[in-house]
Specification:
Elements: H1 3-44, H2 47-61, H3 67-81, H4 85-98, H5 103-115, H6 119-132, H7 137-149, H8 153-166, H9 171-185
Helix pairs in contact: 1-2, 3-4, 3-5, 4-5, 5-6, 5-7, 6-7, 7-8, 8-9
Length: 189
C-alpha cells in the first residue's frame, strides 16, 4: 500500500470517527434543550399536567443517541421489572462503561444497586447521574432515600426538598418531608 493510500485511509477513518461522535453529541444537545423546556413546564404544571410532562421527560432522558446503548438500557430496565437484579446490574454496568456520559444509565445502575442493598454503590451512581443531569428528580429522590436509610435526616430532607423544586406534585416526597420534618427542624415549644 502506498503512502498516499495510507494517508487517505487515515483521513477517512478520522473523519468517520469524528462524525460518529459528533452526531450523538448534536442529538444530545437537542434533547437537553427539549428536556430543559419540559422541566420548566413541569415546575409550573398542575397535578394532571405534571404526570404527562414527567412521562415526556423520562422519555427524553432515556434517549442515548445510540441504538446499542438504548438496548442496554431497555435490557437493564426489563431485568429490574422481573426482579433479576444481578442481570440488571450487569446491563447497566455495561451501559455506563460504554456510555459514561449517559445519565440515565447511571440512574438505572443506582436503582439496581439500591435493590441489592448496596448503598455506597447506589450513592456513587447517583452522584454520576446528578453530575450529568443536576435536575434529575429521580436521582434526587433516590439520594433522599439513601440518606434516610443511612439515618441522615437533614441530608435526606434537603434532597427531597430539591425534588419538590423541580417536581412539585410528588405526594411520596411530600410525605417523606413531613416524616422527617420534626427530626430535622425539631418541635416548637
Amino acid at each position: 500500500m502506498s503512502v498516499v493510500q495510507m494517508k487517505y485511509k487515515s483521513t477517512v477513518t478520522a473523519f468517520l470517527v469524528l462524525v460518529s461522535f459528533s452526531l450523538p453529541l448534536a442529538a444530545q444537545a437537542q434533547m437537553s434543550a427539549r428536556s430543559d423546556a419540559l422541566l420548566s413546564d413541569l415546575a409550573q404544571a398542575d397535578a394532571a399536567g405534571a404526570e404527562r410532562l414527567e412521562r415526556e421527560i423520562r422519555l427524553e432522558w432515556s434517549k442515548s443517541g445510540s441504538a446499542a446503548m438504548d438496548l442496554l438500557l431497555k435490557r437493564g430496565q426489563d431485568a429490574m421489572e422481573v426482579n433479576d437484579i444481578p442481570k440488571a446490574i450487569n446491563h447497566f454496568t455495561a451501559l455506563t462503561d460504554h456510555a459514561p456520559d449517559f445519565a440515565e444509565g447511571w440512574h438505572g445502575l443506582a436503582l439496581a444497586y439500591f435493590q441489592a442493598d448496596r448503598l455506597g454503590l447506589t450513592a456513587d451512581a447517583l452522584e454520576h447521574t446528578l453530575a450529568l443531569n443536576p435536575r434529575h428528580f429521580g436521582a434526587l429522590r433516590g439520594l433522599g432515600a439513601v440518606f434516610e436509610e443511612l439515618d441522615q435526616p437533614a441530608l435526606a430532607y434537603d434532597a427531597y426538598s430539591r425534588v419538590l423544586e423541580i417536581r412539585p406534585h410528588d405526594t411520596d416526597v411530600e410525605e417523606a418531608l413531613k416524616r422527617l420534618e420534626t427530626r430535622v427542624r425539631g418541635t416548637e415549644l
